[in-house]
Amino acid sequence: MKTAVYFCTCSGNVTEKIDPEHVRQRLGELHEGVSFFEAGLLCSEEGRESLASDIAKNRPDRVVIAACSPREHEAEFMRALAAGGMNPYLMHMVNIREQVAWVTEDPAEASAKAARLISAGVARAALHEPLEKRELDVCPDAVVLGAGPAGLKAALLLAGAGRKVTLVEKSPLIGGMPVRYEELFPALECGPCMIEPLLGDVLHGELATNIELLTLSELTEVLGFYGNFSVKIKKRPRYADTEKCIGCAECVEACPVSAGNQYNYGMDERKAVYFPFPGALPNVPVLDEALCLRFSGGDCRLCADACPVPGAIDLDDREEIVGRKAGAVIVATGSGVYDCRGLPNLGYGEIAGVYTAPEFERLLAANGPTGGEIVGRDGRAPGSVAIIHCVGSMDKGHADYCSGICCRYALKFNHMLEKKLPGAKVYHFFRELAVPGKEDFALLKHARENPEALFIRYSDIRDLEIRDGGSGPSIIHRPGSGKSETFAAGMVVLCPAVVPAAGAGALAAMLDAPLDGFGFFEELHGRLDSAKSKMNGVYLAGACQAPMDIREAMSRGAAAAGCALSELVPGRMLDVSPLHGVVDAEKCSGCRVCVAVCPYKAISFDPELGAAEINPVLCRGCGTCAAACPLEAIGANHFTTGEILAEMEGALNG
Amino acid sequence: MADSGILAFEPKVVGFLCNWCSYAGADKAGAAQIPYPPNVNIIRVACTGRVDPVFILKAFEMGADGVLILACHPGDCHYKEGNLRAFQRHRILLRLLRDLGVEEERVRFDYVSAGEGDKFVKVISETVEALRNLGPMNGDSSKIHALSDDSHGGFHGQHIA
Hints:
The complex is a heterodimer. Chain A is an alpha/beta fold. A 5-stranded parallel sheet of chain A has the order 10-7-6-18-31, covered by helices on one side. Chain A has a 5-stranded parallel sheet with strand order 20-27-21-22-23. A 4-stranded parallel sheet of chain A has the order 2-1-3-4, with helices on both faces. In chain B, 54% of the residues are buried. Chain B has one domain (10-156): Rossmann fold. In chain B, helix 1 (22-31) packs across helix 4 (117-134) and helix 2 (53-61) crosses helix 5 (141-149). Chain B is an alpha/beta fold. The longest helix of chain B is centred in the middle third of the chain and has 18 residues, at 82-99. Helix content of chain B is 42%, strand content 14%. Chains A and B meet through helix 4, helix 5, helix 15, helix 16 and helix 17 of A and helix 1, strand 2, helix 2 and helix 3 of B.
């Protein structure tokens, strides 16, 4: 075997400590077939070119580069090998700069250590295999889960790049939370006005042909992997044809039964066939089977009979399972809110005048249960409103983090109350105030200038007690020290913590994409790669990752789309790194220890083969399976047991 | 320099360093040009989760006096949890080595981040110093061989994942 050792002097820097002549001699004593070359600055363009041409000319079997840390130039040297016509994995780099020349005081010791390490590298390289990158066909299309701000943004950007998108939305309407809000922080922009054009683009715009919208739909199965997912989606019946329906609401008029409208948190009623609220898109009603007489043994078809468009109401609509192929799945399923009944001292669900912030948003909304009038369940406008911040947030037993958005919408409420109920007192009970953002601070400034607004800090939410004061709730604040104070308020608004969505766990299990300690989807890296989950090909966007505002959710949607666009390009194959685990099926006993230790779910057990199988697309080459295998049936490419032992022996005996 | 006895003894050490944190930490020490004893021969692995306890037994067989495993701090592992697997395996190996008469100080597990050049130098210096004081490896090499060689009845046969 011919091994070429290239010793880079690093422009003479390394040779101040290490004597290349000593290394050359030592290698000659320890190995056969080694040629030793000294180079001035191998990493320079010139150096790399001469390396490539030298390799092309001399055709060594293996190459050892003794230079700086492989973390610096290894990739460039590998390309130089490839340019010289040699498999780049037949090279090994030895770090004689950071690990020897720069840290060893005595030149004789430095030379001896360098010779040892290079000798170890020669021994290791002898065992290197000519590994090849594999290439896989990919499907460039995407499934986007959730049609809120993040999912909409991702879907539109992907569609704009010509990708086919299946946009899966659980509810009958799209737009997520902001379409339900009259005004948005920080600029008090109209929510529906802002987001409706986006919804129009998804439904009828130029890009709509690339987007298949499935409402009332949920993911039920995910097979395959990065680049080649095959998913199943359960589509619940709407009983109204979104193509034919003209949105006239004749069916709604005709329906004889009604119940509390969940989209207005039960603050008004809707029929069995209903629109969630005026302006909800798509502008097509949905039928509630639990309420409809037809589904409880009756034979009512008043809605269908009232419908002016034949077939627009379809009482024979049935649940469907649809299959789709995709290279990427973008999770944009949003979050939930803390259940305020978890803090009984706040009286939510017991005291009529206590509302949650999402409920209060609907009271503010012109398309809400009161037409935008701030009135209580008794129909009276409150003379004062208490806003309780941080409900469940920063609280060990509940949500042990700041939810980030609540202060800003609470200050938005302050602004809107000023306009809608002039002269009304606004009490802000807060634990911490967090108002980040270049535009957002103005909200706090404005609220501070409002003479009717009063800010009261509490240290523990349990110091607050809300009681029914007869004419409205009263808030008793009992600080740890000092005297109690009682505030009368016509209405109390609780700002609940933003918490993981109810279905996050089941979805995470289906996608094999883990959740973090709080129950939000875990990012591949919180700072470097926050648009990706820990599962290849599964991207994250919006409040499924953490509490966030609309601006951030939109940006995250764009980020996830960007990652998917960059990684899955039509016509380009998916590079699969050869640095992955390999199972020797003959040796494998099928104990499945490897399946349990793999952090990426890249290993499965093949019952037919009776052996474990590693999916190279999912494997990231950590090698923990190889270390765990009790029969040494798993190898780790480029970090094989043989290679590691050879390197070790070379270093100990060189 | 002393010319005989234990003071003249220079231990041979193998250090398994993960590519992402500890190897980068060693590079930091290099870039800062902080001198440390030349006894440790670094073997780069993608993750300390790759370090099969058998490698450590083999290192002793091949003449090492000590072994170092340097991993990412808990929570920083590039591969989620390989560092914690390495930690578990190290704990079990120590028990086994104790039965063979190998001192605990000969196999050190520690966490070194990409920024901790100083800590890397400290760990190396302490380890080399401890091994100098311990003297050459004197465990029962035939038993070590039995453990590292026979993968069915040896260490692998009884260790957990």
